[in-house]
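Deliverable D2.4 — example input (structure tokens):
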């Protein structure tokens, strides 16, 4: 009977990522693992890797990189509040993401859009400037 309970807790990495709501489908989770966007204990792995509690996962989701620690195992996809109980993010990861977010916001604020569109005369002047400077 103990063998069946240990078999129940054996969950593939792609299935766990889907159940923890990091990816919308298992196929997207599988592609991310195969593409090297997910590292299990700082090593590349295969989608069939068995997830264990206490394991460290590094996920690259777009521009963000999260370092999470697996707290619980589940192969069923449930609501977001329950899915968040399956893992916790490290404090360093949270701080790094917040710093990157702040940097992106300040860079975006520094690039103010022009007050108005260039007029026909402005466009001619811009084109003349580009032609003279070989741009």
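Example output (designed residues):
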């Amino acid at each position: 009977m103990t063998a069946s309970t240990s078999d129940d807790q054996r969950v593939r990495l792609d299935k766990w990522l889907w159940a923890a709501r990091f990816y919308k489908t298992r196929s997207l989770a599988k592609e991310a693992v195969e593409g090297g966007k997910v590292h299990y204990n700082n090593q590349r792995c295969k989608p069939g890797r068995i997830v264990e509690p206490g394991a460290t996962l590094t996920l690259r989701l777009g521009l963000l990189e999260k370092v999470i620690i697996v707290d619980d195992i589940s192969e069923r996809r449930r609501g977001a509040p329950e899915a968040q109980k399956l893992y916790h993010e490290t404090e360093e990861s949270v701080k790094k993401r917040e710093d990157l977010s702040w940097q992106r916001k300040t860079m975006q604020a520094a690039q103010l859009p022009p007050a108005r569109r260039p007029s026909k005369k402005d466009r001619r002047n811009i084109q003349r400037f580009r032609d003279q400077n070989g741009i």
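Residues 2-110 form a domain with the Structural Genomics Hypothetical 15.5 Kd Protein In mrcA-pckA Intergenic Region; Chain A fold (CATH 3.10.290.10).
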